[in-house]
Design goal:
Length: about 130
């Protein structure tokens, strides 16, 4: 447990960097910029997201959690899936600018729900007391 505070700090730093990187690229895509989809940016942000996933997985091993026994963690991973799918639509796959805008907002909603789920340890954070 000695490493828990440092690991949680690292996790939260990676969350901040990942979300900031996504917002920056999404806003640039909406303004018609090409750089967000260039190789360097794609590789850099994928590496950051891999580290984020690894830090989350390390926390869950350290705390002895299991996504089935701790439903909040399972639900958090479902929101992660939503973040990945909506993020990909927002940056590239949605065919229209309106679609990209909507997908970006949906991706950010998934992030907010992930944070709320983690903070409340509740699969439905809006109903946590
Ligand atoms: C954008 C993605 C993510 C966001 C916004 C996020 C948000 C957070 C926040 C705010 C906390 C701190 C909770 C607290 O202070 O008690 C946290 C902790 C945690 N996160 Fe994440 N996280 C993300 C990704 C992940 C992933 C991918 C995993 C699993 C693979 C994960 C697993 C955990 C675990 C196990 C904890 C520790 C909870 C505790 O201390 O009780 N997270 N996360």
């Amino acid at each position: 447990m000695d490493h828990y505070p440092a690991l949680k700090h690292l996790h939260l730093t990676l969350v901040t960097l990942s979300v900031a990187g996504f917002v920056l690229r999404w806003l640039a895509v909406l303004r018609g910029a090409a750089w967000p989809l260039q190789r360097g940016w794609r590789i850099g942000t994928a590496a950051l997201d891999t580290l984020l996933l690894a830090s989350g997985a390390a926390l869950w091993v350290l705390l002895g959690l299991h996504p089935v026994h701790q439903p909040w963690l399972g639900v958090k991973l479902l929101w992660l899936l939503g973040y990945i799918v909506c993020g990909s639509l927002a940056l590239k796959r949605a065919p229209t600018p309106g679609g990209k805008r909507l997908a970006g907002l949906a991706a950010l909603s998934c992030v907010a729900l992930m944070a709320a789920t983690a903070l409340t340890h509740h699969p439905m954070p809006w109903s946590a007391s």
